[in-house]
Amino acid sequence: MQVSATQQAFVLNQALTTCRATPSIQHPVWASVNERQYKSMPTHGIGRWRHLLPKDPPKKKRDRQQMKEIVVETETTYATLNINVSGYDMTVVEHFSQHIHNLCNRLGIKVLDCYALQTKTTEVWLMQEQGTKMSVDSFLKTHNRVVQLRSLSATVCPIFLEVLLKNQPEGVQLCVQEHTEVDYKARFKGRPELEGLKAKITY
Length: 203
What we know:
By secondary structure, the chain is an alpha+beta fold. The protein is about 35% helix and about 25% strand.
């Protein structure tokens, strides 16, 4: 029994040594992945995709805003009209101009443009009861919105204006007038310095 036990121990020791000595067999693909050989190899542009996208067109320069052609009145339609809404409360003025725009869409009236004019500030001076000195009491800001209509029908115009006057809120002024070149220039802020330089160049 002792001989057999020593023989078995000797056989087991030889088996362990042979297992340690023999190299592990690996799959060639897995071996290459583990070694990371692809990092040192050139890719030759494989995986690039930006050249496949269409090139963006060059940005065009913003053209200077030009005055639109004024429509001439006919026997059945009016010329280009400006509905000027003004008041001291900007929220009420803005909502009423939106109401006019929505009403025009419902009645099929063509709205050519809708814009805001420069806010005008008015100083209110207060004179003392005794004396002649005056001091500034408050500032009133007048907000203006313009809804520009095109080819308003003569039959729809009286009904349209009647609806506007009935829905006109308090403290809001409503003015309807024909559009002119002066109204177009009033949209832009004056630059007296630039105009003075232009005058020097011309003369």
